Amino acid sequence: MRAERAIAWYQDVRRGVAIRPNADGTVPRADDVGTVQCESNHWDAEPIWPGWVTGTPRVLPFIAPWHGTPRMHHLMATAFDWAFPPDEAAQLDDFLYEQMGFRRAEWNQLAGSVHLIVPNPYVREVDETLTCDSDREGIRLEVVRRWGVPAPRLRVEIVEDRPTGTGQRATALIDDEPVTLSLASTIHETSATICIAADDSVLEIRERAHFLRDDVVVEFDAVTSTRVVQVSDAHGVVDSYEVLVSHPESTKAQPPPPSAVFLLEAMLAERRIKATARTLEQQWVQNDPAAATHYVRSRIERAREQVLLADPWLGPVEVHRYALAISLGAVPIRILTSPFAFASAHDAPALQNKLVQVRASDPTLGAIEVRVMGREVLHDRFLRVDDRLYMLGNSLNGLGQRGGLMMRVPDPTPVFRELDVIWSRAEPLADYASRRAFSSGVP
Predict the structure, then answer these.
(1) What is the mean predicted confidence (pLDDT) over 229-254?
(2) Which domain-ending residue is among 210, 230, 265?
(3) Domain containing 150: what range?
């Protein structure tokens, strides 16, 4: 019934009646009390209803890999504007990023669009295995069907992918038993398409499967205008093919322009890289100390449990500039510095006295503890905020003056352990200041 309701809602949207779902995910009827109707829109439907298109998780950013090859129908808005109030826009952005893993601003072409996605109705999974029968290799395919769903007879097509282009093809009908398709040459990469035998409508598109072998040696001969590639194993040459070699400035055979699919995949790959960079809060700063300072302070403001600043050159000025950026009282702050930060014998005692004054002037502040590690113990600069860890690039005493990269460490746990060990071995500032003052005769 939920699936029928979803399709009914989708058909209503096509007619210009878009009902906003409830907060719990249920969809009310148009005549229900309290129903909120969204703005109507004009759509370009793909394909012509009630047809479907078969897509892969790469096609839309919010399809998870486990969807396999879903059946999809799209309503693309002919005109749409993201005219949300700032608070609603922020909530929408957070929801889309947390639940579906993409940022709204990166996909303006999807603004106002609606997508109906259903799983493959007959096929749940496809297993591919390389087989060898005497001197012929083949691909054994086993189709795992959906339990309890009567399925039509299926047809599978295997396509061999070779460095020189598309190779051999083999087709077979699939019932309930696995089927093996044989090819005349050594198999390295294949892709498979599963269709309904009666009308050839596509059910599943399997991306390239790679079949690797041990002890394979590739030899190149580029003396002539072709490169001869021979793939050998312990039994001798198992495959051989020629690849055209062309100088970049040659007027001979030029590579064809990239296909739309290639460009789409390249675009999505670039977006995935940029999304990872944003997730890790990556930021390059050069000749902009204000931006670098804001980056560090804005992270410290988020602290709810603890803050640790580890910087061999972190001195009195930096302690006051960053340690007091905490926004929630009672959060303990640890400062890990080194003798490099104290140019004179007066610096360490002065910092100790200043910290005592700060704590006395603002009792709401959490504990601020400073320890001094050895000179050669730590090279990189780190900021820990609760369970997150950041690499800060340059030292905090010159942050942003020279080019530097700041970003969140994706796996902070082992670094946390090492920093805790360094902290446990470091000398409390009061002891270090007293010892330094005594050795230099500071009154």
Answers:
(1) 58
(2) 210
(3) 123-210
Which pTM was predicted? 0.46
Residues 8 and 69 in one domain: yes
Least confident of 4-8, 41-45, 69-73, 114-118: 41-45
Query: What does the pLDDT read at residue 215?
Result: 45
Answer yes or no: do 114 and 133 share one domain.
no
On the question of pLDDT at 255 being above 70, the answer is: no
Query: Are residues 386 and 290 located together in one domain of the fold?
Result: yes
On whether both 382 and 365 belong to a single domain, the answer is yes
Confidence band of 4 (pLDDT split at 50, 70, 90): confident
pLDDT in tens, 61-76: 777 766 777 888 888 7
What mean pLDDT, rounded, does the chain reach?
A: 77
Confidence of residue 242 (pLDDT cuts 50, 70, 90): low
Cβ neighbors of 262 (< 8 A, separation 6 or more) are none
8 Å CB contact between 314 and 401:
no
Domain count of the chain? 3
Structure tokens at 442: 């500071």
pLDDT at 22 over 90: no
- Residues 341 and 380 reside in one and the same domain: yes
